[in-house]
Specification:
This protein is of the alpha+beta class. It has six helices and seven strands. It has a seven-stranded mixed beta sheet with strand order 1-2-3-4-5-7-6, sandwiched between helices. β2 and β3 form a beta hairpin. It is globular, with a radius of gyration of 17 Å. The two termini are 21 Å apart.
Length: 188
């Protein structure tokens, strides 16, 4: 794993994960995003070809603020926390962006699952610079993406899309483009 920088971007072949928005972010915005202290992007290079990026992920600090959550999601989050430690906000890391190069996608590689395992272990290790109980992701609301996160142990913060729309004050007729999912690191 390497922290993404301009040298890596300049020396590697253009990253393509099949999602134009992600490709554009990694190629054009990720360095400025880090300069503005909004998140850090990391990448993995092919062991046999260090000019080929296998996957990229952008991480940022986040938190779950239970004071604003409706009772059902609040109850699910709080039940994992010892009663004497329950508070209003729990520390989390946010997966802002995640992409796997088209050439490495599929069950034979399991790159996405390997990245999730790495991130979980990393934030449980002594190398973690801050306390972090949860991993959050505002996942694209499509079956393929949601299934990926669910297979990796993530749970939806809101059980139903309509509950999430109501929380974020999104009209019932408007499409819910993303779903908030979480993973409790102490369950790993």
């Amino acid at each position: 794993m390497y922290k993404l920088n301009e040298l890596i971007l300049a020396n590697c072949a253009r990253f393509d994960c099949g999602v134009d928005d992600l490709n554009d972010f990694f190629a054009n915005d990720s360095i400025a995003y880090e300069r503005d202290l909004m998140g850090k992007t990391f990448c993995w290079l092919d062991n046999c070809n260090d000019r080929k990026i296998v996957a990229m992920i952008t991480l940022a600090n986040a938190g779950i603020q239970t004071t604003h959550l409706p009772s059902n999601p609040k109850r699910h989050i709080n039940k994992a926390i010892a009663y004497n430690k329950q508070g209003r906000t729990y520390p989390a890391v946010l997966i802002g962006r995640l992409g796997v190069n088209n050439d490495y996608q599929g069950a034979q590689f399991r790159i996405g699952a390997q990245i999730m395992d790495f991130i979980k272990k990393w934030f449980l290790s002594a190398d973690n610079k801050t306390g972090c109980r949860f991993i959050l992701v505002d996942a694209v609301n499509d079956p393929h993406t949601l299934t990926y996160y669910e297979r990796n142990g993530f749970k939806p913060l809101f059980r139903r899309e309509n509950d999430e729309k109501a929380f974020y004050e999104i009209s019932e007729t408007e499409e819910l483009r993303t779903r908030m999912y979480y993973f409790d690191l102490l369950t790993y």
